[in-house]
Predict the 3D structure of the following.
Amino acid sequence: MKWTGVRYTDRPTVEVRTWIDAPPDRVWALVSDVGLMPGMSDELQSVEWLDGATGPALGARFVGRNRHEALGNWSTISYVVEYEAGHVFGWAVEDPADPSAVWRFRLHAGDGGTELSEWMQLGPGRSGLSEAIDRMPEKEEKIVFVRLREFERNMTVTLERIKQLAETG
């Protein structure tokens, strides 16, 4: 059977994992501090909590400002949709009922350290990627593939930076 690729409407996902030789509370302090995230990513430029929030909690909102060479500058509002202190921090980008993306950090303790995963899903709601697909529908699978690989690379770097900070205290 020939692989035909993945389409945006398939809600494709990417997940990256790493082992961190540090206790979960130290790792949690890093992943739950959205203000640190711009220093972990080349694309994310700034993040700030909205509505007086100072940290993650179900329903809390934050604005993220991004920059990408091909996509330009944009900002989004994200909503915390999954939250279990010390274990899970997930957010939906734009409309929580029809997000343009969903992101999640998950921590698992064991063997004196922490397994950290970062997961994301494209869609189902429209995004800047949807606009690129509208302009070049015949290239949808390639557009989605390239963007997923970019996310995978960026997520790998983010987890490596979190690992470095957590392990050096």
Summary: The helical segments are 24-31, 128-135, 140-168. The chain has one domain: 10-168.
